[in-house]
Design brief:
Layout (H helix, E strand, L loop, with lengths): L15 H4 L12 E4 L8 E4 L5 E2 L4 E9 L5 E6 L8 E2 L2 E3 L6 H13 L1 E14 L4 E13 L7 E7 L12 H14 L6 H7 L1
Parallel strand pairs: 4-9
Antiparallel strand pairs: 1-2, 2-3, 4-7, 5-6, 5-10, 8-9
The structure holds zinc ion (ZN).
Zinc ion binds next to loops.
């Protein structure tokens, strides 16, 4: 059961686009093989030449649900794929030298020009096909000026009852918005939201 190509890892649940990037050992450059590894519960991508095991794990995306003084929620209309033209919260991949709070603040400032203070974690959501885990903070807007960027075609503050449910980019965004609503505006939940999501 050796000599497997990295793409064979797809059947183990690694998305194909990710497996396609895992052909070679990052330590010695020899081909990675997918199969049993001693001491491991599941089959792994490993290097027969040096023994390196290439663990494949989701990456963390940190996001904020920025709330204005008036209690409105700031969303952006995405200027890039995936989800081009649809609404989402600001966020992005956590960098290796950041805390989750720092990453969430940085991404929010970069994407929509707002300075926020992350507060309560609204939720943590898996998007398995994208190999990401999305963390959503509620965040208080404390400064900055909302602005469009290459990443945001439009930045708009929505009243909680006016969230554009039918034009949301990702399920994880829908889940985060729904959980935020449940937290802060239970009177608006759930019938209208569930209907819009269907
Ligand atoms: Zn190696």
């Amino acid at each position: 059961m050796n000599g497997e190509h990295a793409m064979d890892a797809v059947e183990s649940g690694i998305p194909a686009w990710l497996a396609a990037t895992l052909n070679y050992c990052s330590r010695c450059g020899a081909p990675l093989r997918f199969g049993p590894v001693e001491g491991e519960e599941r089959q792994r991508l490993a290097c027969e030449a040096c023994g390196y095991v290439a663990y494949v794990n989701p990456r963390l995306v940190v996001t904020t649900l920025p709330v204005t003084e008036r209690g409105e929620l700031v969303l952006l209309r995405r200027g890039f794929e995936p989800g081009y033209g649809l609404w989402a919260q600001p966020g992005g991949f956590l960098e290796i030298d950041e805390t989750v709070n720092e990453g969430a603040m940085r991404e929010t400032l970069e994407e929509i020009g707002l300075v926020v203070e992350p507060g309560e974690i609204v939720g943590v959501y898996s998007r398995i096909e994208a190999a990401v885990v999305v963390l959503a903070f509620e965040a208080r807007v404390v400064g900055g000026t909302p602005r469009t960027t290459a990443e945001a075609l439009e930045v708009r503050a929505f009243r909680p009852e006016a969230i554009p449910w039918r034009e949301i980019a990702f399920r994880t965004t829908t889940w985060a918005l729904r959980d935020w609503l449940r937290l802060r505006h239970p009177e608006l939940h759930p019938a209208a939201v569930d209907a819009a999501e269907a």
